Amino acid sequence: MSVAAIVKGRRSIRKFEERDVPDSLIYGLLEQAANLCDRNALQATRVVVANRKESRDRLSRALTEALAATRMGKLMPGQLLDTMSRRFAELPGHLIVAVKDDGSARTKDWQYAHACFFMQTLQLLAWEQGLGMFWRSEEVMYSSAAFELLGIGSGERLVGLMHFGFIAKTPRPRNRTPAARRWAQWPNI
Description:
8 helices, 47% helix, globular, Nitroreductase-like, Nitroreductase
C-alpha cells in the first residue's frame, strides 16, 4: 500500500477489540516512528506507555479526578463519571506524550512540532499493522490537576494522549474539503 493511500485511509479509531496489544508491537512501532524522526528533536519528547491493567486503571482514575475537578465535571453525576472512568480503563492502551517546555519560543515550537510529527508518524505506522489510535487533547487534560495526576512536570508541555488497540470498527470516510479551498495568495507577492 502506498504512503498516500495509508494517509488518506487512516481514521481515528474509537472502537477497539478487547485484546491486549503485545508489548513488542507497540514498542517496535515507537522505535520505528522515532527512527523516522529527527533524533535530536525527539530528545525533548517523553512517551509514557499505559497498556497494563494497573496502569490503565490508574490513568483512568487520574483523568476522571481531573475532569471531576473542572466546572463541567462538578455538574456531572457521579454515576456518569464512574461510567466514563470504567470505559476509559477498558481501552487496550494509552500513550501520554509530553515535550520539554523550556528555551526560546522558537525552540519550544520546534520541539512541539517534532513531537506532533512523531505522533502522526506513529499513527500511520500503527494503521499499517492493523492498530488504530485516537489522539486526544481536550482542554480538561491541560489543567494543573491533570498535569500533576499524569506526572507532567512543570518544565513539560502535554502534546496529547493517544488511545490504541486493534481496530474493532473503522468509521466510514468523510467528505474531504478540497485543499484549494484552504489556500490563499499572499497579498502583493
